[in-house]
Amino acid sequence: MRRTIRLRGLNGAVKGQVWEGSDLLRVGRVEPLEVILDDPSVSRLHAELRAAERGWRVRDMGSTNGTRLNGVRVGSGQWPLHERDLLQFGEVAVVVESVSEERPSAGSELAGTDQMRVEATTRTTWEEALQGVAFDSHRTPRAGEQLFALVRAGHHLGHIEREEDLLHAILEDAVSVLDAQRGAIVLAESPEGPLKLKALVTGRSNPKAVANGRPEPTGRFHFSQSLAMRCFTKGESILCHRADEDPELALAKSIAGGSMASVVCVLLRTPRKRLGVLHLDRSPWQKAFTQDELYLADALAAQVSAGIESAQLLRRQRDLFLETITTLAQAVEMRDEYTGNHTTRVTTYSLHLAERLEMPANDIELIRIGTPLHDIGKIGIDDAILRKPDRLTPEEFAIMKSHTVKGADILSTIRDLRPIIPIVRSHHERWDGKGYPDGSAGNEISPLARVVALADAFDAMTSDRPYRKGMPVAAAFAEIEKGCGSQFDPTFAAVFLDMRDEIVHQMKKLLAVGSSTVIAPAAIAEGTGKAPVPSA
Asked: Higher-confidence residue: 83 or 499?
């Protein structure tokens, strides 16, 4: 189709003047240019408007006073034009009154405003991409650093169990070997998306940029959603750059806000399914990604995708395991109407305390699994004792205390649950050795059990029972403080007391969603009531 453009002058001597042209309009002060602007702010050859494959573009030709498009000064790249766009050459303003442009061909545009110039794509199978592990696109053996990154990726798959740690390790290697300013892994929640950010890594700073007073930009956008979604839905890896010279890219929120001048989006996939996207970008002060770097990133994506898929399956298996444990714990609670959602609250408090103590990730995971089952042994306690509405007699209390041993015996038959036995057996032990069932003291008690003991006692104090009302929060914290070094680990108790506001916040959240029927609202209010610290 014939491509034409029509401009109209807006100010000064050119106001109302019209220029029309097809294919090319050159702007400046001298003949034989198509648009002559006799103004001292306009350079001899100031700018040109050219009809390109994707429509009309404007480019500054190195003018003294610059060319602006809708108030933004353009660079030496080609910026797209649309009807009603405002152009300013020096101090002379014109408007694009009409424009006839060729539509982009199918597949050459992205939805929304987050568009960019696609320099290269690759659509390879998983097996073909794996061939790029050892050789580049020219069948040349890869450089040592590149090959080492790919080998390290395989190492991660065999040595890292947690999905979050695996994704972070993969991303750190990708950002390092491809010299990216930032990397992101986004994974699909379903075969159709949407894509969700799962890992983010910022690369090393650019010494040259810092030396020139331009700190390496990080921005508030971590990846281009449109590019990532195109990569995922079309099943092709993409290389884009020169973003700073293209307003469709430079003015887009995620691109401009993230200071992305060059982007590689590669598809994470296995022979069975598409998993998501590995997104890497470079800043305007770095060299643009090359096509061979696209192939390297694509090979890396193919290398790690099977491990990511396995990690996802393990996570889902773990989630199902936790759901099963929670259901089992709820079955125990249903036998005792007076401890409704006790395990939910104790688990919540325990996890917050463990995180504040900066316990190892594996210990926190054991607390997540074990705390819901800390009272599993009560399934072996007779209803007449478990559901008794009055205080227990000494004989009955002795039977009740056996729930710790019964619970440990139950779990000992399940190999995968044996690591949480210390929580179940020892959460009623005391720092001074006066607890049960073993009379362990101090550091003899598992730190997992010491954490749960604090959370368990606090919840027991602030919950209603048939024979008493729950303590006010102030009184419960006072009892925790009183028990420092006797009933409770003094270090753990001090941290728990420092978390007062956080614990109260969690109590209010649980009460607001109706997960508890036994936390007395009055217990959250400040008060000074006295009561013994429950031990069962």
From this structure: 499
3-state secondary structure string, 322-355? HHHHHHHHHHHHCCCHHHCCHHHHHHHHHHHHHH
**Is the whole-model pTM more than 0.90?**
no
- The secondary element (H helix, E strand) that includes residue 14 is none
User: Which spans in 402-435 are helix H?
Assistant: 403-412, 421-426
Contacts (Cβ under 8 Å, ≥6 apart) of 457: 479, 480, 483, 487, 488, 533, 534, 535
223, 225, 229, 230 alpha-carbon torsion, rounded to 10°: -90
The Cα–Cα gap between 59 and 343 comes to 66
d(CA 433, CA 77): 76
Phi, psi torsion values for 10, nearest 5 degrees: -115, -20
Q: Contact, 480 vs 454, CB < 8 A?
A: yes
Select from 364, 399, 405, 371 the least CA-distant residue to 385: 399
Bridge partners (DSSP) of residue 73 are: 68
HSE on the CB side for 434, CA within 13 Å? 7
d(CA 184, CA 203): 11
The string of pLDDT tens digits covering residues 418-467 is: 999 999 999 999 999 999 999 999 999 999 999 999 999 999 898 876 66
- For residue 224, CA distances in Å to 183, 195, 220, 428 come to 11, 11, 11, 52
* Whole-number Cα distances in Å, 416 to 163, 370, 408, 411, 419: 19, 11, 13, 9, 7
Q: How many CB atoms lie within 10 A of CB 138?
A: 7
- How confident is the model over 55-114, as pLDDT tens digits? 888 989 989 999 998 877 887 677 888 888 889 999 999 999 888 754 444 443 333 334
Distance CA 395, CA 399 (A): 7
Cα–Cα dist 247/56, whole Å:
13
Contacts 24+ apart (CB under 8 A), 208-211: 208/285, 209/283, 209/285
What is the CB-side half-sphere exposure of residue 253 using CA atoms within 13 A? 6
Integer Cα distance of 342 and 3 in angstroms? 73
**Residue 100 CB neighbour total at 10 angstroms:** 15
Chain centroid to CA 437: how far?
43
Please check whether residue 372 is in contact with residue 329, taking contact to mean a CB–CB distance below 8 angstroms.
yes
Residue type at 497 in one-letter notation: L
C-beta pairs of 413-419 under 8 Å, 24+ apart in sequence: 417/369, 417/373, 419/366, 419/370
| Distance from chain centroid for Cα 449 | 31
372: its two tokens: 């819901």
Hey, what are 503's tokens?
């614990």
Q: Do residues 457 and 480 make contact, with C-beta atoms less than 8 angstroms apart?
A: yes
Burial track 146-178 (b if 16+ CB lie within 10 A, e otherwise): bbebbebbeebbeebeebeebbbbbbbbbbbbb
